[in-house]
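Example 9 (inverse folding). The structure is encoded as follows.
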């Protein structure tokens, strides 16, 4: 095996210069690849091209032989998060400083974490408190907001958060302590739609989970392997279908924050074929592990992969989830990084699988795992890699093109991505000082033949020469503006035009389906052939229904019968008896 060795590059500046020139690389956006140089000043991309006019005092970063890609965006992390079991509360091993260090080393320059409040009256105060905690981050960050109860006070707080604090995504739960009723989901979705946000949905049937958990406890079945039976695929699929149905009634866009089952993927694919604003993501651990991990003899290793919904005990599920990403059924790959120590997990759930805190590592491994599973085997190209790790999340949560694109005016969040030699991710993480020895690594045997060689975060070189050069609190809160064009412009166009929608299913086949009945009903008043002239004149420049001819018309027309059709001498015909005889071609 050709293992990667530490590079002794002279091209990586360990400086805090506000002027950088990234030279000689191949630039990759989600829709375009080209060779160009990038000039950066004050954290923003100022020029992109060749033969740039550059002022003095610039430090050059040599990108020859590397892909230059937008910094990764991880739309689901859980730093400095608490989990309550009984009267005890445990906290994740990573805070925003240590977690963002791992993110940067893996090529991620923006994270989106979560914030929740114990009571409605505390939502705005807790948002400020959470923002303060996140200010320790070495990279830029944003926040989703968990909705754990519902009343008018929560509704007003959501309106304020979206209008004044840059929040456009709210997570709701269909199971566990914060489970909502269908009536509450309807009201929450309706309000989310009215403020131009998107609903993140944790989709599992909580009522069934509670009943089955009680049954398994009564039979003393408490090992991690029973997670896949209690939180079974059918429980996830039912909740996914119910969430789609409820959201459809109020035309609310929804995003399933962790999809693990094949049947749930089919429900999502079907909804997208109908033109519904339904999106989703998969967590990186699901591409390299499946439900068989819960049967490992080592309890610590078994619970290192625990997620809710859990990984599925199906040997083909990893390829199915990868196919869902590559076909467009799911839009993002996130890490779901929520890491607890082995001791804390054992205290909470050693004697009861239902109390094991869900969460894995992955913020460092996320991008290299996708490269290993999808790009190396040829399932996707580098442009699609950029889309799944950065651009798609930026567009869904409305920070594009500030983030997720290399363009003039965008933030200077860049990664020099190099191939060459296999990287053992667990070994590299340990070398970089990212590993917590009190925690188990779910990505222990994962390798990749490519990874970040240089990471630039808002114009600062924060990783290079296999060393981190991060600064605590370098990151800033990025507002997520409401009404993301990717979602709301598409919904607006859908309501204006009556056409069929198509989507790639999880098997890669293209199928076309009719619009949903509710969407067709919304279109009933729109007639695309209706005249734009209120006096009854003709509708536009491309219609020819009046019988008038133009000098550009041929001798025949799609516009119907003409006034001179019966005349043998037509004004546009200049030669009636051409040499060689008249043509025998007739247009009937």
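The amino acid assigned to each position is listed next.
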């Amino acid at each position: 095996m050709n293992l990667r060795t530490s590079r002794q590059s002279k091209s990586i500046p360990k400086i805090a210069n506000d002027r950088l020139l990234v030279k000689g690389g191949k630039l990759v956006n989600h829709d375009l690849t080209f060779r160009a140089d990038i000039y950066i000043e004050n954290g923003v991309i100022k020029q992109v091209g060749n033969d740039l006019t550059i002022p003095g005092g610039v430090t050059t970063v040599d990108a020859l032989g590397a892909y230059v890609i937008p910094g990764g965006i991880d739309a689901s992390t859980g730093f400095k998060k608490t989990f309550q079991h009984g009267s005890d509360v445990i906290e994740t091993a990573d805070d925003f400083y240590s977690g963002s260090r791992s993110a940067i080393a893996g090529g991620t320059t923006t994270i989106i974490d979560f914030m929740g409040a114990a009571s409605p009256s505390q939502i705005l105060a807790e948002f400020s408190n959470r923002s303060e905690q996140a200010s320790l981050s070495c990279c830029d960050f944003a926040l989703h907001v968990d909705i754990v109860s519902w009343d008018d006070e929560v509704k007003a707080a959501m309106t304020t958060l979206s209008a004044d604090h840059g929040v456009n995504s709210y997570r709701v739960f269909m199971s566990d302590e914060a489970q909502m009723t269908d009536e509450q989901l309807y009201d929450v979705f309706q309000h989310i739609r009215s403020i131009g946000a998107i609903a993140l949905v944790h989709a599992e049937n909580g009522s069934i989970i509670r009943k089955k958990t009680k049954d398994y406890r009564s039979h003393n079945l408490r090992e991690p392997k029973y997670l896949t039976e209690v939180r079974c695929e059918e429980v996830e699929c039912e909740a996914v279908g119910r969430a789609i149905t409820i959201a459809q009634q109020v035309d609310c866009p929804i995003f399933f924050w962790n999809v693990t089952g094949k049947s749930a993927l089919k429900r999502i694919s079907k909804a997208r074929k109908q033109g519904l604003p339904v999106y989703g993501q998969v967590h990186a651990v699901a591409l390299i592990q499946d439900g068989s991990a819960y049967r490992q003899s080592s309890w610590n290793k078994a619970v290192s992969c625990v997620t809710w919904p859990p990984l599925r005990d199906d040997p083909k599920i990893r390829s199915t989830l990868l196919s869902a990403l590559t076909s467009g059924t799911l839009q993002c790959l996130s890490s779901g990084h929520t890491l607890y120590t082995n001791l804390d997990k054992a205290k909470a759930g050693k004697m009861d699988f239902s109390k094991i805190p869900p969460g894995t590592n992955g913020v460092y491994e996320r991008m290299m795992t996708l490269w290993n599973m999808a790009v190396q085997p040829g399932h996707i190209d580098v442009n699609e890699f950029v889309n799944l790790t950065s651009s798609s999340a930026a567009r869904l949560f409305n920070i594009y093109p500030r983030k997720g694109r290399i363009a003039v005016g965008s933030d200077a969040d860049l990664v020099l991505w190099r191939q060459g030699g296999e990287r053992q991710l667990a070994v590299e993480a340990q070398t970089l000082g990212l590993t917590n020895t009190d925690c188990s690594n779910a990505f222990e045997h994962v390798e990749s033949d490519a990874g970040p060689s240089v990471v630039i975060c808002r114009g600062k070189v924060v990783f290079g020469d296999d060393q981190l050069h991060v600064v605590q609190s370098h990151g800033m809160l990025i507002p997520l503006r409401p009404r993301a064009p990717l979602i709301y412009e598409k919904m607006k166009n859908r309501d204006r035009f009556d056409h069929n929608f198509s989507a790639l299913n999880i098997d890669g086949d293209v199928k076309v389906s009719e619009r949903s009945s509710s969407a067709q009903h919304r279109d009933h008043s729109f007639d695309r052939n209706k005249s734009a002239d209120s006096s009854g004149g003709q509708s536009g420049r491309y219609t020819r229904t009046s019988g008038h001819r133009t000098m550009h018309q041929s001798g025949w027309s799609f516009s119907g019968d003409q006034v001179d059709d019966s005349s043998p001498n037509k004004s546009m015909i200049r030669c009636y008896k051409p040499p060689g005889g008249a043509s025998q071609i007739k247009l009937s």
